[in-house]
Amino acid sequence: MMNHLTGMRRKSLALLAMAALSLSACGEGGGSGTELPTDPDAPVIQVRSEGGFLPMELVLGRGPRYTLVADGRLLIHQGPVIAIYPGPLLPNYLVSQINEDQMNTVLELVDEIGLPEMEDQIDDTAARLVADATTEVVTYWDSEGEHSYSVYALGIEPDSSNPSTDAFTELLVVLDQLAAQGNAAPYQPERVQMIAGLGFADPEFGDVRDWPLDNTDFSDWETLPNEWVCTTYGPDVLDTFADANQATQWTHPDPMMDAPAITLLVRPLHPGEPDCPSF
Question: Are 123 and 100 in contact (CB under 8 A)?
Fold first, then answer.
């Protein structure tokens, strides 16, 4: 185990050094063959996690780790989080700007992964080593449509022997560095995802509030696993949940129903995301 951890540590340090060199020298030559959409708000790449042995509400409420749009705005999945429980209901999404050289570095790594030539490929070689891990997914959009590359249990093997997986790992290091550079502002979404269901009510935090939405009929919400339902709202709804936390529960919208309190998962959507999760 010590040798395995040491190998992973050395690989991480090497990738950090490579990423630093790429970021400092990316304007010195070469260039990417990838395309940028003409719409400045269109998504270029998105990184997210899927699966894993987690409660359903955590799986349903999980958003992308990063989204990069054509004009160089890097949407950071999660900014600093207050170290308390229960934490705020709304995720702290931030948005920052990257420059043209940094964008080129990202696009060169997209080329190294091979995304423009892929449709939907996965490296699941680590499945023999670990069960119930997450799958990391990077999606790239161009004029041909959507291209995805997935890696199960990314990082569990110190040497993947797969050039696409190695390039994906380096891409994550670069995005982490870009996100840590600062100059970030709160993300202003166009759509807000609303998921309702019977989640886990923590008896130590008896925060039960009246139903907060004008929509009281679940029949037009999209059905998800385990009887959860989903719809979307405009960004104005976020003010309603500004002081709610992850343990807040809500009374059933139909007062005639003798039903337990409802859990709401509320999250701003990134560009490129569907209105509701797909399974």
Answer: no
